What does this fold into?
Amino acid sequence: MLKKEDDQLQDDVIAELEWDPSVDHTDIGVAVTHGVVTLAGYVKSYPQKLAAERAVRRVAGVRALAEELKVRFASDPKTADHEIARRIVDMIAWTVPLPEDQVKVKVERGFVTLTGTVDWNFISKEVARAAGQISGVTGVSNMIKIGPILRPDDVKARITAAFKRQAGLDASGVTVLAHGGTVELRGHVKDWGERRIAETAAWSAPGVSDVQDYLAVDR
It folds into this structure.
């Protein structure tokens, strides 16, 4: 059977499942290979499982049925990959100020891979933290990139502004070097508090993925 025919048969099976009022098709996946239909996913009861089988067998062109549906009651935890992915997307939308689809979520057997590009490192970390809070997640791989080209002048300006907010501290002794997404802080500051302020300000600049603090403390 040609792939085109398999694709059409898949569409027909999905349509039949959607049409049957006794079947909740939301968590049912349909695959077709050479006229053999595979149903995978979850249904809410055993009668629904039987109804789904009957619906498939009604469709013309079905040569065989491989039924891999599992019965899962409403009280059972929702830990299917697509459900985990949906909850992660919702969690990101609730907790992180990001445009829609800026971060992509992939879930495979509970393991989450995050991709995309954001402006700030703290957002990347917050997205990964949010994903790790979802039940059913077995691990998180954060592959989110930090976006715009880093400008040393911008980092320097943020550090200077942060120092001014802290009782007019002097940032003249701080030198900022930037390459890729990495910022190097060199020079000297008066105390450990100034060093911490400089490092925090550097992290706040768009495009920063790493801060290397080589500042010397005068006392």
Q: What stands out?
A: The mean pLDDT is 81. The chain has six helices and eleven strands. The CA atoms of residues 150 and 179 lie 8 Å apart.
